[in-house]
Fold these 2 entries.
Entry 1:
Amino acid sequence: MWFGAGREAYARRSSPYNRAVPKIHPTAVLHGEIELADDVEIGPYCVLNGRIRLGAGCGLVAGVHLQGTLSAGAGNIFYPGCAIGFAPQDKGFPFHKDGAGTVIGDGNIFREQVTVHRATRDDRPTRIGDRNYFMACSHAAHDVQIGNDCVFANNTLFAGHAEVGDRVVTGGGAGVHQFVRIGRGAMLGGLCGASKDVCPFFTLSATNYIGGFNRIGMRRGGFSSAEIDLVREMYGIIVRSRLPFSQRVARLETLAGQPLADEFIAFVKGSKRGISTRHGRATGARGGSGAEGE
């Protein structure tokens, strides 16, 4: 990365007890209440505005725009063209309203042209967890909640208020509808759309169509054979069964008392948008009665 030797004006504001100062390129613009850890590096033509805090080891490569209120932990890297913390794409939202802002954890990578918008709410920020990888042109809209250790391929789009669990993987161009929940360990194929919730460890292979479950991801995540078999059984109940959806949930509840089963039961019963099963668009044609949306 190309960085200057640091800005003298900022160095004068730094603590006299610490000789290290952030490296800020002379063309960068900082305005507002900016708090930078001593080893932060800010490259050419970056713009930081508002109330912003960047933790140790953060780096802005070039042409990055950050808008407060925004807090980012340690080791986050922002590539050229990132725009983080700007107002929601909501015509009724006042442009200058801060709301609860944007909170980013540690060790995230934001590749070129990634956008993350701040919250509309005053009580809960848009939140990005730890060690997530956002590939180029990914978008997380206002009020989105994203867990840890996720990988989002190019052009992945999360609409407002979407919730994403840990270790979720998406293919390029995947899209998630507003308020939809993606359970931990789930996978979304390229160009797939989810307008219904996707259960933990399930794989979405077409719009609202579950094609299988993430056995390989579970093995890599250290799950036992018994736990993988349990998810296989729950996949059969939720996805492959032809019973009315309420009866599928009742069968799922017979497995209660096991941590993974309890997680599934809570996820399914907590759904407000319905659960993706096999009544989506596998080949472009609608199938099934849509009972799983009840």
Entry 2:
Amino acid sequence: MRWDWMARRETALQTARGRLQELIGSEFRSGDKLPNERDLAERLKVSRATVREVLGQLASEGVVTRTWGIGTFVHDGVERVPVSIGDVTALRDRITASGHRPTLQDAAVSRAKCPADCAAVLGLEPDSPVWRVDRLFAVDGVAAAWIRDHLPLRFDGRELDPSGLVSIDLDMFEFLASATGMPVRRAEIELAAVLADEEANARLGVAVGHPLVTATQIGYGANGAPLFHGHITVRTDVLTLRISRGGDTPPAG
């Protein structure tokens, strides 16, 4: 009797799995959020426990990704590219070092009013004119990170012209070292988890509600002078952010 029960259960799981994969293939795109377990159970005419087990199988095989408290999303099959954020290195170079091809899918440089959080860092009045640099980075052709940086119009008496940053051949750190005569020696990054909104949907091509990581980055020169203030939005199904931490080696003996 036990073998009969196990066989029936396995058949039910296979049937539910087939229905769910058919549903995903016909109604959802890569990055889309799936309905919750209760709704899926009703559509597939199975129990929530069966749905939960099938989703667990698909997650282990990389078909879907599950984030506790957020939901289940269709995986796009793109290899995640690990990039370190523990040092002052351009995103372009981090992607290249991982063996992948970085490109700019979109980029623009314009004058804009300085947001309040940026103004406090750069020592400006809110709404003061600043440079705004928008760049959409892709990894192997897949949109991965959108970065919006703000820079002062001038630094230490030098006029800044960041128009060259619309090219993948020039990164922010190279530009600032050349334009200000002061390399970025330190970058502070503050991370937060968010859900994609309409703007992220348009820029990164993910569904509204897709989990993302945002970061606020401030770059400082050798004397502690703030050089730029930026916001980064990252698709963690394409890029994974890695922080390496270490301490002094304890003395021997």
